[in-house]
Design brief:
five-stranded antiparallel β-sheet, 5 strands, single chain, mainly beta, globular, 146 residues
Length: 146
């Protein structure tokens, strides 16, 4: 194996969507996937089409994604909150906790893609971490009917 053999394993175009910036959005779910990183971490990726945006840098009609790291403490919580919101349930109401279990997560990331096409609200807030880094908090909510 030559020193540049790794070039055979990569794509120049990449397949990552941009991540959400701070703002409020209405989105249509395109896909929910599970992806294992090269380091062996499991991520749940939510791919979305922007229907409405409060951030001028995130254009309506664009596609964006959120990556939730399953191995982190907040990973399963964020996935549960997302699936609850997709099903029209308030993720802030503890009585809804039992509505999402392992079977629902398997189904969400599975081949049938039952969440694709659902419209949902997303609030993204920029937060400083304890170490001084930047973090975007994603809050998924069911679409609010007027």
């Amino acid at each position: 194996m030559g020193k540049f053999a790794k070039i055979e394993e990569v794509k120049a175009s990449g397949d990552r969507l941009p991540y959400f910036l701070e703002g409020r959005y209405t989105v249509r779910i395109l896909a929910v996937r599970e992806v294992e990183s090269r380091k062996g971490d499991l991520f749940i990726i939510v791919e979305c089409h922007i229907l409405a945006s409060s951030n001028k840098d995130v254009r309506v009609g664009g596609n964006y994604a959120q990556a939730m790291k399953w191995n982190d403490d907040m990973g399963p919580i964020n996935v549960k909150r997302f699936i609850l919101a997709c099903n029209g349930l308030d993720p802030n109401d503890d009585k809804n906790n039992d509505a999402v279990g392992e079977e629902e997560v398997d189904l969400a990331v599975g081949e049938s893609q039952p969440l694709a096409g659902i419209e949902i609200e997303l609030q993204c807030d920029a937060i400083k971490t304890r170490s001084g880094g930047d973090f975007t908090k994603h809050t998924w909510l069911p679409v609010q009917e007027d």
